[in-house]
Write a structure and sequence with these properties.
The protein has 6 helices and no strands. By secondary structure, the protein is mostly helical. The N and C termini lie far apart (38 Å). The radius of gyration is 16 Å and the shape is elongated.
Amino acid sequence: MKLQKIILAASATILTMSSGFAVAQFQKPEDAIKYRQSVYTVLGNSFGKISAVVKGEVPYNKDDVAKNAAIIAMMSTLPWQAFGPGTEGGKAQPAIWSDNAKFKAASEKMQLAVVDLNKAAQSGDLESIKKAFGATGQTCKGCHDDFRKK
């Protein structure tokens, strides 16, 4: 519970700090692309570790799953600042900028699902983790389907 409060406080601080100068913090569009790709790499790594547990490929270890879910919760707040005007490119489809309201809604849906995954992981209830993991994965897939180049 303490870790979850720390993560939520850090996330709120990051969001507050970044909202006013998000695009300005990147010297070049390539910097924004590299930043968001790095965030997604860390997210994918931690998500993959939980996936292996959910699929039964790796024995369930409550602490490892909780740690990875906490990482996902924190990291899920970060990539959005790197999708400002002029940061087109990478694996991002133009629809991110042309239909930004839909992209923003998808990002918010994912972040809410991640909060549920983190709560389930911190509880230690494997069945709740599996359910929340599936829901989170669906939000990731939906965004990939609509906004990521194949």
